[in-house]
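Need DUF1232 domain-containing protein's 3D structure for a figure. Predict it.
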Amino acid sequence: MGSIMTQETNDSIEYSDESFWQKVKLFAKKAGREVIDNALCLYYAAKRPDTPKWAKTVIFGALAYFISPIDAIPDLTPIMGFSDDLGALAAALAMVSMYVDDNVKNQAAEKTAAWFD
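Structure prediction for DUF1232 domain-containing protein:
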């Protein structure tokens, strides 16, 4: 998969599809179903052609935080490791919820089920 969007500055986190899928693959079980489902809802909402640029900016910011190796709470920390990721993803979802339609939810649910069922 190619990159949907990449931010490249000295202070920002870079987002790429490859990094996103690698993080999901490596940490799905550890992150938990809710974190992965939220991340996938955002990912599929960003792929919608009618999602405006401002919403994609919010989405990619949250997804960049999710894939970043530098976290407020390191992902390898037992129990609490993904709580900050969940908060960032949930906040982004609340902001762009109008672009998370049934199709996006179904795509995310199918992919989440593939990782957890």
